[in-house]
Amino acid sequence: MSGQVHVNSADLVSHAGHLDGIGDGLDQARQAGAVVRTDSGAYGQLCQIVPALLNILQTQVIDGISTAATSVHDTAEQVRAVAADYDTSDGNAADRLRNTR
Which DSSP string corresponds to the chain? Predict the structure, then answer.
């Protein structure tokens, strides 16, 4: 591998914060979806099956949103861990260089 790799750990931490913001929005969407349900009488007597089907679909969507929120929050934590690893690695390399003088 040629060239240098430059990683700014502060930028990674900032990016993780943005990811958490996205995850928070997904959490809010999940909560909103869980609160609002179609009443069984919403479509009248002839179409009582419609709300039941919509509620089944809504549950699946809410589960998907919940999974996405968890994934985004987990990714944010992993990005923070990578930033910490870079800082540790850079610190260790700096210590080795200081000790070779």
Answer: --S-----HHHHHHHHHHHHHHHHHHHHHHHHHHH----TTTTTTTTTHHHHHHHHHHHHHHHHHHHHHHHHHHHHHHHHHHHHHHHHHHHHHHHHHHHT-
Average pLDDT over residues 5-31: 97
How far, in Å, are 33, 69, 81 from residue 78 at the CA level? 28, 14, 5
For 41-55, the pLDDT digits (tens) are 888 888 888 988 999
Q: Which amino acid is at 78?
A: Q
| Residue 69 CB-density burial (10 A; 0-12 exposed, 13-18 middle, 19+ buried) | buried
Q: What is the pLDDT of residue 22?
A: 99
pLDDT at 101 over 70: no
In whole angstroms, what is the distance from residue 22 CA to residue 94 CA? 35
Q: Which pLDDT score, from 0 to 100, does residue 37 have?
A: 86
